[in-house]
Backbone:
């Protein structure tokens, strides 16, 4: 009996141990699941920096950041902005991406001294949350018209159409965000600009914050309406902020999109191609020239280029070439430098100075390039005009010594060689002769007029 009870007790203890193990396993699983769920609910804030003019590369950069934030289910995208403005077409595309972003977008003009000029204020007003740091400003968004060289100057009616279209864009985004529509429109029609305090007081923005953590603190628990009408409340205090930088391709494109860089590449490429044409087979100058010109063409293709300015640049190189041929004592070179400078200044027809070629850049490229090109071309022309010093033609005009009496045929020593010679008059051995013609292996000579002066 005791043995049976002991056996049953052992079985019961074993079953209890298994049960405790299952309970512990389930508890551990539930705990891990809760931790994982809490971690998945705690999303990051994706931060991007726009510290340049608004152009096509900026559109690609912001668009990919929004895609990444949506894929990672981030709580918000923070755009820290400092821009003088940019292209209206690129601005419209960025606004479309902000409006369609599934992740709330915060635009923050920072650091102190920054601005959201021209195109920047459109992006600021399009954001779900608009904020500025102390000592910043936004505005001056009147459209500057871009017209090519063959287009007629727009009349007043066309100006009004473009201004009204841009103002309507501003009214649309400001009204959807519940901001001061009339004041936002004045930034377009009257080119008004506002300090951060004016923008806050007049309801163009929601917050003034010295840094992003203070901005998150002010925003914590506050509700706002998104562009699609949904209400969102963010709690970003203490949440990790993840930087999203440009890719290598975007950094290279952004660098090339500087009109000054594109102009320098174009000028150096043209000079390298000229060097290749004058020294066929050198390979390196031709390769450099093609690469630089293609890079410049790619960059300029993304910018509003005046083709009349390109024609002026080509004309400048034509004048440099003409200087070497006609020797105008610098007149043609000066004209080429002027044309190259003006061509550089007018090359990019951009709405803001930051997107145009600077005068200092145009002069720094034009003057040295003009002088170098004219110098190289003059050397090449002089080399073609120089007396030939090799082969049969190189013997003509050379002074030799008669080795035998020329009456009229004999031998002469000229140019380190012994030649058969024919002379129209008799010449005694040892006298000096000058070569007048080369006829196969025979030279025709005349008596030398005078002895050379040895110094």
Residues:
């Amino acid at each position: 009996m005791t043995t049976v009870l002991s056996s049953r007790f052992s079985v019961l203890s074993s079953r209890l141990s298994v049960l405790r193990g299952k309970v512990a396993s389930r508890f551990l699983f539930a705990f891990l699941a809760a931790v994982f769920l809490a971690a998945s609910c705690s999303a990051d804030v994706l931060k991007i920096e726009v510290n340049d003019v608004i152009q096509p590369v900026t559109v690609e950069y912001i668009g990919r950041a929004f895609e990444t934030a949506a894929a990672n289910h981030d709580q918000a995208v923070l755009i820290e902005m400092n821009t003088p403005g940019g292209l209206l077409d690129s601005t419209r595309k960025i606004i479309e991406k902000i409006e369609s972003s599934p992740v709330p977008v915060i635009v923050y003009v920072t650091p102190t001294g920054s601005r959201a000029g021209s195109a920047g204020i459109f992006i600021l007003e399009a954001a779900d949350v608009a904020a500025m740091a102390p000592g910043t400003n936004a505005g001056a968004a009147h459209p500057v018209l871009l017209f090519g060289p063959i287009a007629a100057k727009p009349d007043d009616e066309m100006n009004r159409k473009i201004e009204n279209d841009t103002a309507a864009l501003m009214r649309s985004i400001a009204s959807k965000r519940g901001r001061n529509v009339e004041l936002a429109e004045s930034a377009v029609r009257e080119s008004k600009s506002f300090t951060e305090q004016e923008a806050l007081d007049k309801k163009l923005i929601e917050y003034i914050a010295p840094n992003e953590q203070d901005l998150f603190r002010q925003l914590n628990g506050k509700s706002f309406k998104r562009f699609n009408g949904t209400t969102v409340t963010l709690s970003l205090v203490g949440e990790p902020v993840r930087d999203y930088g440009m890719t290598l391709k975007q950094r290279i494109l952004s660098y090339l999109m500087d009109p000054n860089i594109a102009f320098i590449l174009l000028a150096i490429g043209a000079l390298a191609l000229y060097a290749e044409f004058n020294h066929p087979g050198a390979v390196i100058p031709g390769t450099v020239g093609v690469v630089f010109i293609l890079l410049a063409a790619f960059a300029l293709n993304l910018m509003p280029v005046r083709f009349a300015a390109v024609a002026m640049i080509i004309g400048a190189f034509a004048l440099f070439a003409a200087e070497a041929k006609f020797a105008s004592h610098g007149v043609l070179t000066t004209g080429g430098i002027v044309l190259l400078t003006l061509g550089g200044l007018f090359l990019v027809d951009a709405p803001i100075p930051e997107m145009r070629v600077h005068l200092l850049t145009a002069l720094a490229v034009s003057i040295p390039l003009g002088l170098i090109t004219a110098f190289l071309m003059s050397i090449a022309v002089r080399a073609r005009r120089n007396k030939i010093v090799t082969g049969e033609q190189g013997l003509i005009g050379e002074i030799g010594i008669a080795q035998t009496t020329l009456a009229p045929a004999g031998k002469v020593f000229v140019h380190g060689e012994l030649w058969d010679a024919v002379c129209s008059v008799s010449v005694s051995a040892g006298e000096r002769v000058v070569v007048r013609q080369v006829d196969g292996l025979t030279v025709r000579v005349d008596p030398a007029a005078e002895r050379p002066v040895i110094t």
In short: DSSP finds 14 helices and 16 strands in the chain. The first strand starts at residue 45 and ends at 50.
